[in-house]
Hints:
Layout: H1 2-20, H2 24-44, H3 48-72, H4 81-112, H5 125-132, H6 134-159
Helix pairs in contact: 1-2, 1-4, 2-3, 3-6, 5-6
Amino acid sequence: MTYHLVLFVLIILLALAAVMTENILFSAIILSLVSVGVSLILFTFGSPYAAVFELSVCAGLITALFISVISLMPKEKNLPKKHHLKSILISLVFFIIAVINWVYIIPFFESLSKYPQLNIHNYPLGQIIWEDRVFDLIGQICIFAAGVFAVKSFFYRQNT
């Protein structure tokens, strides 16, 4: 449990660093490190296929897309102090919401650990992905779709 706690805290700190950094390229790289941490958590929770998907798609493909989009963007302009303070306050509110959710989500994960573990060696990959671990796959597809739509919307705005 200590290992999971350290990973959760590290992911939260990296996510905060990604939000707080002023360089958007560093932010994209830090977000890929968050994805690496999430894949470690997925692997330790017994979902190796979702972990590999998280690592390859979110830490790999989406990060490469973000960096390519960042290279197409014009140079950043410094925000006035008023906007900087507003972004810090919004980040603080999201951090408080995340801590409150953490208090309620940890017991949910502990209740999930009481379910019998799936022996992955006795089942074919298709059955594991499409029947037993469908919620892992749905979450990964949502993350992938969010990245694709964000990049698509940026290219749409730049062409008009």
